[in-house]
Amino acid sequence: MLYVVACGGRPAADLPTFVTQVQVDGWHVCVVATPSAVKFIDVEALAALTGHPVRYDYKQPDEPDVLPPPDAYVIAPATFNTINKMASGASDTLALGMLNEAVGLPLPIIAVPTPNAALARHPAFLASVKALRSWGVELLFDPDRYPLPTPNMGSPAAALFPWDDLASAVSKLRREL
Length: 177
Fold this sequence. Notes:
By secondary structure, the protein is an alpha/beta fold. The chain has one domain: 3-Layer(aba) Sandwich (Rossmann fold). The chain has 6 helices and 5 strands, in the order βαβαβααβαβα. The chain has helices at residues 15-24, 43-50, 80-88, 94-104, 123-134, 163-176; strands at 2-6, 29-33, 72-78, 109-113, 138-139. Strand 4, helix 5 (123-134) and strand 5 (138-139) form a beta-alpha-beta unit. The chain is globular and about 40 Å long.
């Protein structure tokens, strides 16, 4: 079971193609979204594609969990905000709470940070990337390999997202599990 965590960024709109690709590779998929991601994704289409509701908020403690337990996580796209909050241990969204639990279990996590070029140089972000990597989180983040959008780049930034490399990393993870 692969949990795909979507954060609020334009690449999140392209999740259906990625979900289909990893399903063909043999994964069962659930999508968990940050509150900001809901603006970018088609919740109903993703629920129909996965056969599971898209979760984006905490449930009541006495309510049963509607999703099966995960074996691994993908964060696509992983925003500047989510990377920094995850590294600090903040769990103010369902997505962050699940990711922080995954670090502690430990479950495999592959993240694709998507800051713009200015935010990618921010000292807090660089420290967060270093911390997450030291905890075993695989980050597909290398500005020399994956071009970063410029501030206010808009829609063309979505074309920079490395979906193919992410699918390859997830396929490799499936073979290792």
